[in-house]
Specification:
Elements lengths: L14 H5 L5 E5 L5 E5 L9 H4 L13 E11 L2 H5 L6 H11 L3 E9 L5 E8 L21 H10 L4 E5 L1 H11 L6 E6 L7 H14 L3 E6 L10 E7 L6 E6 L4 H7 L22 E5 L3 H4 L1 H5 L10 E7 H10 L3 E5 L2 H5 L15 H11 L2 H11 L1 H11 L3 H12 L1
Parallel strand pairs: 4-6, 6-7, 7-11
Antiparallel strand pairs: 1-2, 3-12, 3-13, 4-5, 8-9, 9-10, 11-12
Length: 408
């Protein structure tokens, strides 16, 4: 039995593997690093449970009392949480209160071993000490292979669970649970699309070679340098002092390809969940463009822009109840879905597949990021490249003061 006819019909969530009663399905990497399921026909009993849980071939609606989404601009009131989060610290605020109330919390965690090998997978936490593992952006697909069965087991034991992930992961989880989701609260992300971990590992390998060491830590968006897209990498070097590298997104080939939608899974370009009809009980993301749609927030200094501002969509009664019960660490400002969507296009449509998609995948497969990085630098020009580096090194506190002076 074939699970799908073309690659865009599979998001790599692994729900089909988890639901199979005969363990006849496993995920395998294709030549470009994207994972796809494969059936062992000798074990398969043709029950078709695998087809029934697919979130791409069967669009999942929000089953928890669907209502029109209520939108907010939001920040975390706790300084330490907002400064260690990618945007306004909303997930950290909700998750910390949920953990204190006895919830199990799931989210994507990125680990890099001593040899520089990357692994991004969903992790189960029950302690505030472990919350840092789940904070921050990870611009790569997270493995969820072991997750769904564990969540079902916890829910069957009446353990309240908060799960955060991409919309397709949440849709997969809901289809896997088949309505037996009492005690589950879901937070979906405004997702542009996901590259695979092999691609990111290849980028790490380029960084390791460039700086003569191994990447031991990578922060996609380091809040020390403001609310934006400045990454930092820590390079462990045997013969020299370890090096911290500041990477503005504009100077990074990986970031450029990601932000321009050129290295996602094929399913991302036809994603049925890239719309305002959300599958999660709550939706979170960056409130990009907020100073245009809500200038009063920034001008009156209600929220400090340099620290990051989130958007929240509360999509049903489960979400409303959760925000009311566990949102005490958040400062909320009423907005609307249309305003949030202005610079969050994935609330309206999926990312567009680029014409040079296959060429880029071939380039990464055959040459890594060496030539791509060289082409980026050449096309940008040395003057602009250096200017971007200088700007990236300016701490967010100084950038905030400059903004205040310019507003006067």
């Amino acid at each position: 039995m074939e699970l799908f006819n073309k690659n865009q019909e599979c998001c790599g969530c692994g729900a089909c593997c988890s639901i199979c009663p005969k363990e006849a399905i496993q995920l395998y990497e294709d030549q470009n690093g994207f994972v796809y399921p494969r059936i062992n026909d000798e074990k398969c009993i043709n029950c078709k449970l695998c087809k029934s849980v697919c979130p791409i071939q069967n669009k999942t609606q929000n089953q928890c009392g669907k209502r029109e989404s209520v939108a907010y601009a939001a920040i975390n009131k706790i300084e330490s949480q907002i400064m260690t989060s990618a945007s306004g610290g909303v997930f950290a605020g909700l998750a910390s209160r949920a953990i204190e109330a006895g919830f199990i919390v799931w989210g994507a965690s990125m680990k890099i071993d001593m040899n520089g090998n990357l692994n991004v997978s969903h992790e189960r936490i029950t302690s505030l000490i472990d919350l840092n593992k789940l904070k921050g952006s990870k611009y790569v697909q997270s493995h969820t292979g072991h997750v769904f069965n564990q969540i079902r087991e916890d829910l069957n034991k009446n353990k309240k669970t908060l799960f955060s992930g991409t919309p397709c992961q949440i849709a997969a989880l809901k289809r896997f649970l088949r309505g037996k989701d009492q005690g589950l609260v879901t937070i979906d992300l405004i997702c542009h699309g996901t590259p695979n971990q092999k691609m990111l590992q290849t980028y790490f390998d380029w960084l390791s070679e460039k700086y003569n060491g191994k990447v031991s830590e990578f922060i996609f968006r380091n809040k020390k340098y403001g609310w934006g897209m400045t990454a930092t990498a820590l390079i462990n070097r045997k013969s020299k002092k370890n090096k911290k590298v500041i990477i503005p997104s504009s100077n990074s080939s990986y970031y450029n390809l990601f932000l321009n939608g050129k290295i996602y899974r094929e399913s991302c370009y036809a994603c049925p969940y890239a719309s305002a009809d959300r599958v999660g009980d709550i939706t979170i993301g960056d409130y990009w463009g907020i100073k245009k749609v809500h200038p009063e927030i920034v001008k009156n200094n209600l929220f400090k822009e340099e620290k990051g501002i989130s958007c929240i969509l509360v999509n049903n009664e489960v979400g409303v109840d959760f925000i009311n019960e566990y949102g005490s660490e958040l400062e909320l400002f009423k907005s609307d879905v249309q305003s949030v969507s202005v610079q969050n296009a994935q609330l309206k449509h999926p990312s567009c597949k680029p014409d040079d998609y296959e060429l880029i995948l071939k380039e990464i497969k055959e040459h890594g990021f060496h030539r791509l990085q060289g082409s980026l630098k050449k096309n940008m020009g040395m003057r602009r490249y250096i200017t971007n580096l200088i700007k990236a090194h300016i701490p967010s506190s100084i950038k905030g003061r400059i903004r205040q002076i310019l507003r006067r």
